[in-house]
Write a structure and sequence with these properties.
It is a single chain. With 430 residues, the protein is α/β, with parallel strands linked by helices. The protein has two domains: 192 residues, Alpha-Beta Complex (Aspartate Aminotransferase, domain 1), CATH 3.90.1150.10; 227 residues, 3-Layer(aba) Sandwich (Aspartate Aminotransferase, domain 2), CATH 3.40.640.10. The strands form three sheets. The protein has a seven-stranded mixed beta sheet, sandwiched between helices. Strands 1-2-3-13 form a four-stranded mixed beta sheet. Strands 11-12-14 form a three-stranded antiparallel beta sheet, with helices on both faces. Helix 3 packs across helix 9 and helix 4 crosses helix 9. It is globular and about 60 Å long.
């Protein structure tokens, strides 16, 4: 009989619990500790972690440099929640200096959701307009909900989603240009071509619309600053950052043009001066820069992806490994194969973020990568025996498109525009 005790323990938490299922597929896992690229379950069993706090653990779990910075700050009694000190000023300068905006200003928050909400509020106040045009994921705020809306239908919060399709953005502008306060996008580098991002920015610039790069997921992951500058030297008006800042600690920010940022003056909250998060952010950014960690993570990520691709190709199973260095995504030819893969991964000691992006941390050194590939190959060997009847089957473009949606919350570039719109409607991808 299955013991549901873990699910009972979690039942008081109203929010959806993001944790992998155990090998039974019936219960969410609980963890007791973590170090570097490893995380340990209730029974102290070791797993290699690619969830990494859904991408916020960039160096590795419980990194000594980051932890020691927090401990030292606390031992020196520098923590206070009453007012600022030099640490928050240093962090503000550190981030604003990284973006290509003259005299940039910054506002701090606790989550990416809050930072994106602040971008909306500030630009609505600045422009006097209310409409928001969006692509990608910007957090759980109900303002982004379009579950019951058709393509380009305005939701109850005066928001329209164009799904990273430039042609739809042009149509929105044609119909609503004088009502738009902001265009906000969360860039992707796995399923969107550089040309798509170029075109979206160019369309906004030609039409003199404000742009926010929601870099909560990608910023400070590929480089010391906005990920957008990896593909274009065009600056935008506002940036949000979070997951790359503090090695898992709770902090986010909105940074950009001073004439817009002045409208965030009253966007404050009780724990604004949380020095634990600020200490973690300063230590993380210091570690990443001094250790050339952005380049190292990217290099290790690409090397690991090539090995995983070869393992999957050798199995002849319909599995794609798609990615851009420190972040990758798995696409499976069938739902049954996908479920079996993730259940067996837990058996072999790997925690994947099911259906979403897998994130490499700096702690995935050569030894860890070798061990990861060994475990990954064991997973593939087991599922290949079970699914030998679908070997040599291809992953369809449609399957890739639908799977990619789970990672980018938008339309991948792998099919023509008309097909993208058709698939959004077919699968109700909202």
């Amino acid at each position: 009989m299955i013991n549901y005790n873990r699910e009972e323990k979690l039942s008081r938490i109203a929010a959806q619990v993001f944790s992998p299922y155990d090998s039974s597929g019936m219960q969410r896992m609980l963890f007791r500790s973590a170090k570097d690229c490893y995380i340990f379950g209730e029974d102290n069993r070791q797993y290699m972690d690619l969830i990494n706090g859904k991408g916020s653990i960039l160096i590795g779990h419980n990194n000594e440099h980051v932890n020691n910075a927090i401990i030292q700050m606390l031992q020196q009694n520098k923590s206070n929640y009453t007012g600022p000190n030099e640490m928050i000023i240093s962090l503000a300068n550190r981030i604003t200096d990284s973006i290509n905006v003259e005299q940039a200003k910054i506002a701090f928050f606790g989550t990416g959701t809050a930072a994106c909400r602040a971008a909306v509020g500030a630009t609505r106040s600045f422009t006097g307009e209310k409409m928001i045009v969006s692509s990608g994921y910007h957090g759980w705020d109900p303002m982004w909900d379009i579950w019951d809306k058709d393509v380009l239908e305005i939701n109850n919060e005066n928001m329209i989603n164009f799904f990273f399709i430039p042609e739809l953005l042009e149509k929105v502008i044609m119909e609503h240009k004088d009502k738009i306060a902001l265009v906000i996008i969360s860039p992707d580098y796995t399923y969107l071509k550089k040309e798509t991002l170029f075109r979206i920015i160019d369309i906004c610039r030609v039409n003199k619309l404000l742009i926010c790069c929601d870099d909560v997921k990608q910023g400070f992951r590929y480089r010391d600053g906005s990920s957008l500058e990896c593909v274009t030297n065009q600056a935008v008006d506002l940036y949000t950052f979070s997951k790359g800042l503090a090695n898992g600690h709770r902090i986010s920010c909105l940074a950009g043009r001073p004439d817009i940022m002045k409208y965030t003056k009253y966007y404050s909250f009780t724990s604004y001066y949380d020095m634990i998060s600020i200490s973690a952010a300063l230590a993380t950014l210091d570690f990443m820069k001094k250790n050339n960690a952005y380049e190292i993570i990217t290099k290790r990520g690409y090397a690991l992806l090539e090995k995983l691709k070869k393992i999957c190709e050798g199995s002849r199973l319909p599995i794609e490994v798609n990615g851009s260095g420190p972040m990758f995504h798995l696409v499976f030819g069938t739902d049954e194969l996908q479920t079996s893969f993730y259940r067996e991964a837990i058996n072999q000691g790997i925690c994947f973020y099911e259906g979403d992006n897998q994130c490499i941390s700096w702690s995935y050194n050569e030894d860890a990568s070798v061990e990861f590939c060994r475990r990954f190959e064991n997973v593939i060997d087991v599922v290949a025996r079970k699914y030998s009847h679908i070997q040599n089957m291809d992953v369809s473009d449609e399957r890739t498109f639908v799977s990619a949606w789970n990672m980018i919350d938008g339309a991948a570039d792998n099919v023509p525009v008309e097909k993208r719109i058709e698939l959004i409607r077919k699968y109700n991808l909202k």
